Amino acid sequence: LFTKTIKGVGPRYCPSIEDKIVRFKDKPTHHIFIEPEGRHLDSIYPQGLNTSLPHDVQEAFLRSMRGMNEVKILKWGYAVEYDFIYPHQLYPTLESRPVKGLYFAGQINGTSGYEEAAGQGIVAGINAGLCVQNRNPFILTREDSYIGTLIDDLITKDIHEPYRMLTSRSEYRLLLRQDNPVERLSQRAYDNGILNNSDFQLIGQRKKLKSELTKLWKKTSCTEAQVSEFKLKHKIKLNELAKRPKIKLADFIDTSLPLLEKEIAQQLLTEIRYEGYIKKQTDVIDKIKRYYQKIIPSSLNYDLIMGLKTESRDRLKENRPKTFFEATKLAGVNPADIAVLMVYLDKNFGNQKSVNSVAL
């Protein structure tokens, strides 16, 4: 891998030890974590020593570590160069565009990591099941999930290295929190047969508890002790008190309550505290969605749009997207050029009618 005998680009976020030594040559040490491979096994794994160096070199540097001078190597480190399909050949359902009914998920789509593979696998599996039932597809988007962000990136962007889904890749991560996936996706999961009735009833009870707590905090005032502690001029409702930075969950509820009720209260506290930011982000999403429905005139001359990069211009001319939404999903058309296109359409076709719906 290091000598470039293998041409593929290695994963950015777990480089080999030889790559680390060259990239971080200023570091005098490197931590290796010795991990047991199983409760009933006598083998250990040196975490942090990913390598494809020759066997004699691997043995030499392992034996140089204190306490491992007589180590016995059971499995040598190695690198794998694998083929993958260009994922822009896929629909958002992960169905192949050229071959109907064929779905792809995981490493073959150019990703790296267990969670990435699992996320694609469940989407591909759900859609394969819906397909044979002649039902509408199940599509996750950038606005409702990290899986949606992952798939959108894969099918619209050029992949030059193994792809990892990082939270920083999502522009909507304020909405995609770990405390609200049930609210974001449970109804759609139920509608597609992924949640059974008993599970969905439990989720309904959770939503009811949250609704009752929301009403309670809106009509209940804080105590005299809280007025003094937080230097308030007078009593205020608990949902207003929740917006203050020094407020903790213990200021609102009895911490000995059941775990579910504490989780719901913590979620509500978070939503109230960041209410202004959350509303701003949802407003932006709504604005973009409305613009997605703008029709792009079939006669549009992309050569007249100043500021478009050549690659984006060529992709737009080649595919002739019918709507602005379709334009945003073209591989090779970057966000900056999408913004240029939006400004041009606004300026020259501001009164253009919108379509009623967008075909995903």
Describe the protein's architecture and organization.
This protein is mostly helical and 360 residues long. It is 42% helix and 2% strand. It contains 13 helices and two strands, in the order αββαααααααααααα. The protein has helices spanning 17-23, 55-63, 114-132, 146-156, 181-191, 197-219, 224-229, 238-241, 259-273, 275-292, 310-319, 324-328, 335-348; strands at residues 33-36, 44-47. It has a two-stranded antiparallel ribbon with strand order 1-2. A hairpin with a 7-residue loop joins strand 1 and strand 2 (44-47). Helix 5 (181-191) packs antiparallel against helix 6 (197-219) and helix 6 (197-219) packs across helix 9 (259-273). It is globular and about 75 Å long. Mean pLDDT is 88; it is low at 354-360.
List keywords for this structure.
2% strand, globular, 360 residues, 42% helix, 13 helices, mainly alpha
